[in-house]
Amino acid sequence: MYVVRNFPRIFGSIAQHSVEFLFPSSCPLCGARVSTHGELCADCWTAFNWIGNPKCCRCGYPFPANLDLGPAPICPRCAAGECVLDLIRAACTYDDAARDAVLPFKHAGRVINANFMSRAMMWALRDINISPDIVMPVPLAWRRLFHRGYNQATLLARPIAHAFGVPMDLTSVHRKYRPNMGHKNATQRAENIHGVFDVINPDKIRGRKILLVDDVMTTGATFSELHRVLTNAGASAVYGVVFCRVVRAL
Ligand SMILES: [Zn+2]
Ligand SMILES: [Zn+2]
Fold it and tell me: What is the pTM of this model?
């Protein structure tokens, strides 16, 4: 009777253990055994430069750990009103460890990395009290989507939208194709990105608080341009979260 009553639970447990036996959970970066599918092992976790406190309360720019800057420190750019979005958070800084996670994720189909990356991004949002109406992955031009097969930002945005319990918007903004921005400086990036986004469904944008999601923030030019077009379309707030950000001296 016990077995019959608990059959679904027992069967589920057997199925789960069978799957773990056949396909043991492994760290997506080094292959070491881990207890949870898609999570990092301790060694890989500690290789990242996770952004804690103190950091800029607007853009999340990390300050040296030994500085006591009070409860709401602000960086010079944000103090001068130059923050590209209303709030930005990044899980970690762009360094060798972040690059080794992002490049295969972005260009070589290592989509499993989205698990730990999106969790880290939710962790990065923990100290700001936002309630977005929409989660929007930074759009990819159709030509790139066709070649790559997926938008890496969408893979990160999906679990974040789920965690907030709000829809993910993939259709309201269209991105034109432009050649790669790889080795351009901040001014060239800003020029290259200007006019690249079109809001094609302003009814979905007007009056909404939007959380943008991307894998990397380099100069902030992409966020800045999205902020411009979304605000022009009537968005009431535009936030951003990335897995990693390039940190330059201010
Ligand atoms: Zn590992
Ligand atoms: Zn700042």
Answer: 0.88
